[in-house]
Amino acid sequence: MCPGLVVCCLIRVKDLGAFQLGTAEDWIATFTQALRSYLPAPQYIITYAPLAPWFMKDRWPGGGWLKGVDEAVGELIDWYNIQFYNQEDTRYDTCETLPHKSDGWFPGTSLFEIADNGVPLDKLIIGKAPGEVQ
């Protein structure tokens, strides 16, 4: 390893069915533990790109990202690149709905609502496509 070199590993999870069934969270937690054992901090950064709706409280059978992932292994993850796009009618497209109060199908999933539910704000990165793309 070169002194001062930091390597980042970004994991993008897109298995909607596994979250609906409640099986994704345990897999992600186990994978994260194994990955961190091979990629120790601070020289390696582990980050995920979860969908914003996965941070809904009490919605997902396996606890979703809040209970099933962040509470279980959040200390092993450096930050979350949250996907605030392609979310049906919850568009996160105003200065109110993206940072302060989400609308539509996925309440409680704006940036500050996620932080209010226990995820440190300094671990949350906004992922949003520019322009009309949703």
Radius of gyration: 15 Å
Q: What is the structural class?
A: alpha/beta
Summarize the amount of helix as a percent range.
25-40%
SSE order in H/E notation? EHHEHEHE
Number of helices: 4
Morphology:
globular
- Number of E strands: 4
Q: Flag low-confidence runs.
A: none
CA-CA gap between termini = 40 Å
**Overall average pLDDT:** 89
**What kind of sheet is the major sheet?**
4 strands, parallel
**How many individual domains?**
1
Estimate what percentage of residues fall within beta strands: 5-15%
Quaternary structure classification: single chain
Strand order of the largest sheet: 1-2-3-4
Could you explain the architecture of this structure?
This protein has 134 residues and is α/β, with parallel strands linked by helices. It is 28% helix and 14% strand. It has one domain. Strand 3 (79-83), helix 4 (111-116) and strand 4 form a beta-alpha-beta unit. The mean pLDDT is 89. This is Chitinase.
Quick structural overview:
The chain contains four helices and four strands.
Attribute tags:
134 residues, alpha/beta, 4-stranded parallel beta sheet, 4 helices, 4 strands, 28% helix, Chitinase, GH
Chart the SSEs and their pairings:
Layout: E1 7-11, H1 16-21, H2 24-38, E2 44-48, H3 64-73, E3 79-83, H4 111-116, E4 124-127
Parallel strand pairs: 1-2, 2-3, 3-4
Helix pairs in contact: 2-3
Protein name: Chitinase
